[in-house]
Amino acid sequence: MGRAVFTGRLPLGSSALQPIEPLILSQTRTTFSLLVLLLILVGVRGWQRIRLPARDFAHCFLLGTLGVAVSNYFYYVAVQRINVAVAIIVQYTAPVWVLLYVVARGQQKLTAQKIAAVALALTGIALVIGLIGSHSASALRVDSYGLIAALLASFSFAFYNVGGHSILARYDRWRVLVWTLAAASAAWLVVNPPWKIFNAHYTAGQWLFLFVFSVVSVLGAFSLYFLGLQYLEPTSAIIASCLEPVFSIVLATLLLGEALRSLQSLGIVFVLAAIVIVQRPTRRGNGESLVVDPIE
């Protein structure tokens, strides 16, 4: 849907919806989701439901700005400038960057399983962007700025998964989500103040799309993911969530007509295999695993 609305190809009645920039899509996505989530949580259980000690506000601020806001924005920039398949598969290398970080910090040991995951991921990326299997003149045919944006989104995605681990161990996810969304929303108000939004003169159809998109892609996705966690072990749920790039690529092919070369498809398979390998616990059963929850 993001790709379609960026390119003006999203139908709305008898005409297509006018293109919307990644900035406003990222901003409204967090702001609308925050307002709806506050209405649900505070309306049902009161402010105690989202109460957070002052010492943890800075933590949530970093997660919301450098994590959620930055990853959302650069991912949508990537989707706008390159096709969905390349953008999402590059972002979904985040578990590999998390792995390299925890190994460098001495929090996990580097095993043959993890080395294989890194090798698969890097090979997959090289195939997807054309570094392998293409002549030098045609290599890196993807938009350079879009590719850099996808990489930045991947690093930011990895950052808030690493940074969010300790606070999620102390508080439930909905409480953390509220304050990270609040931080992201506040940051966007500084970058893109309300008067600039009003001066853009978005139509009623555009506002309706932005609201529905926000609720479906954030609150709907999280509600279903948490429901799955009630019935599945965390590792199984995370591996199942790796189907997200698969569905995104299939939908982009069917609905937007995006085409993939055979080597790009092989690269995508390599990256997905790397994600699954990284997320699986070690054979010793010592509980080591990387938790990478999607908050796109």
Provide an overview of this structure.
The chain has 296 residues and is an all-alpha fold. It is 71% helix and 1% strand. The chain has helices at residues 2-6, 22-45, 57-81, 84-91, 94-104, 112-129, 144-168, 173-191, 194-199, 204-231, 234-241, 243-256, 262-279, and strands at residues 11-12, 15-16. The two termini are 13 Å apart.
The total count of helices amounts to 13
Between the first and last Cα atoms, what is the distance in angstroms?
A: 13 Å
Structural class: mainly alpha
Give a count of the beta strands, DSSP E runs of length 2 or more: 2
Overall domain count: 1
Stretches where pLDDT is under 50 for at least 5 consecutive residues are 136-140
Label the overall shape: globular
Would you spell out the secondary-structure blueprint of this structure?
Elements: H1 2-6, E1 11-12, E2 15-16, H2 22-45, H3 57-81, H4 84-91, H5 94-104, H6 112-129, H7 144-168, H8 173-191, H9 194-199, H10 204-231, H11 234-241, H12 243-256, H13 262-279
Antiparallel strand pairs: 1-2
Short description:
With 296 residues, this protein is mainly α.
Name the features.
single chain, 296 residues, mainly alpha, two-stranded antiparallel sheet, 2 strands, 71% helix
